[in-house]
């Protein structure tokens, strides 16, 4: 099940270099938990139906101009009505000066008041993009995530099947490690992105050797912080008598966080060079995404050949 995620308001303030005009009583603990922001124009006019106080509130030029047209007492009433809800913060865009009534209401209700120099449209779009990253549904899967020829490949399989050893061979061949053992997978829109837990980032465990730091051993070019996931490869011990796919016509997929990804099962047997096989599988997957399927082309050529042979036989 995907984890319920949140991000601290203070972290967003630091990332966006927001000016703190008034620090609310809950500033240090305030969390943003939904991917949305709100321009409280209707709320300033007194309409609070369907209002979600969990959203970050952004006051733009339109709202600011409307409030400036009100008598001071009415303006104070509008701000007090908004600040009576436990909103995470109100952000003033375009570096606008808060009115005395705004500051007074924010202090009375203990709400956080922030300011940005950006326009409302730019700030809200950047904020929604950041919240999408921070609050994206996330799960952790056991496996190895590599970037191979620009494609994110998630290598899965039972413990001891050779995932980490294959990853080291791929690193030696010029590819990049994102995560070993635990892969944190987030869904942003309809795309899956994988990364490593910060404590074990760039480390890899090799049985008989122990833990090695790939970044220090092979250099910065051998690692990457995160990658989109394009292909899932499952390694399993070779099963005698099992009918493995030999043509590649049966395209399999796996669902992770509701996103369908192509998947392959590669049997592990002494003498098989798994790193090379995974490289070829990755390149073949790229070809399929670009509209070329070698298995289908071979099948069509065989069918045409059989048709020609049958045609000659009929003569």
Account of the protein in words:
- By secondary structure, the protein is α/β, with parallel strands linked by helices.
- It is built from 10 helices and 17 strands.
- The strands form 4 sheets. An 8-stranded mixed β-sheet has the order 14-11-10-8-9-15-17-16. The protein has a 5-stranded mixed β-sheet with strand order 2-7-6-5-4. A two-stranded antiparallel sheet has the order 1-3.
- The protein is elongated and about 95 Å long.
Please supply descriptive tags for the structure shown above:
eight-stranded mixed beta sheet; 17 strands; 315 residues
Nutshell version of this structure?
The chain is α/β, with parallel strands linked by helices.
Number of helical regions: 10
For the report, how would you describe the main beta sheet? 8 strands, mixed
Mean pLDDT: 91
Q: Rounded to an integer, what's the Rg over CA atoms?
A: 28 Å
Helix percentage range: 25-40%
Query: Could you name the ranges where pLDDT drops below 50 across 5 or more consecutive residues?
Result: none
Termini, distance in Å? 64 Å
Overall geometric form: elongated
Show the helix and strand layout.
Blueprint: E1 7-8, H1 9-15, E2 19-22, E3 31-32, E4 37-38, H2 41-44, E5 56-59, H3 61-68, H4 72-83, E6 90-92, H5 100-109, E7 113-115, H6 120-135, E8 138-148, E9 151-157, H7 163-172, E10 176-188, E11 191-195, E12 203-206, E13 210-213, H8 214-218, E14 226-228, E15 231-237, E16 252-256, E17 259-268, H9 274-289, H10 294-314
Parallel strand pairs: 4-5, 5-6, 6-7, 9-15, 15-17
Antiparallel strand pairs: 1-3, 2-7, 8-9, 8-10, 10-11, 11-14, 12-13, 16-17
Helix pairs in contact: 4-5, 7-9
